[in-house]
Amino acid sequence: MAKVLVDTDVCIDLLSARQPFNAVAEKLFTLADLGKITVCVSSLSFFNLDYVLRSQYSAHYSRQVIAKFKTLVTVLPVDSRTIDLAIASDFSDFEDAIQYFSALENRIKTLITRNIKDFKKASIQVMLPETYLAKPHKA
Is beta strand 110-112 parallel, antiparallel or unpaired with respect to 74-76? Predict the structure, then answer.
């Protein structure tokens, strides 16, 4: 089964129903729900998700949404080595660097984001959700 790291922006699209991106995010996470792919999310993403959701909804509702979301994904740790790699990298966006090195440290070969321009020097595949969904997926 394919294992992918999904960047925070795509997770926000799903959980906050951000138009017009939520439909593609729903399709991507449906593949995970059906057991066709394993969606990994860095632990850093959960902080960002809560921050965005609390700006739209109550803290209680945000936690409920995040708890349900957690059952759908594999949470990857962000440890000292990941942070050191991100610090030493030439990524202009530190959060993107953490996401990228979370994928590398966990031997994930595909990172899905709507922000591909910040991953130009990546040694793994970086794809838009639409591009990834266009590929065939088998359980």
Answer: unpaired
List, in order, residues 6 or more apart from 20 with CB less than 8 Å away: none
Q: Cis peptide before 136, with omega less than 30 degrees from 0?
A: no
Q: Which domains does the chain have, with CATH numbers?
A: 2-133 (3.40.50.1010)
Burial 59-91 (b: 16+ CB within 10 A, else e): eeebeebbeebeeebeebebeeebeebbeeeeb
Q: What is the pLDDT of residues 53-96, one digit of tens each?
A: 999 999 999 999 999 999 999 999 999 999 999 999 999 999 99
pLDDT in tens, 73-84: 999 999 999 999
Q: Give the Cβ contact number of residue 93 at 10 Å.
A: 13
Could you read off the pLDDT of 91-111 as tens digits, one per residue?
A: 999 999 999 999 999 999 999
Nearest to 108 by CA among 94, 125, 120, 96: 125
pLDDT at 36 over 70: yes
Contact present, 6 and 37 (Cβ < 8 Å): no
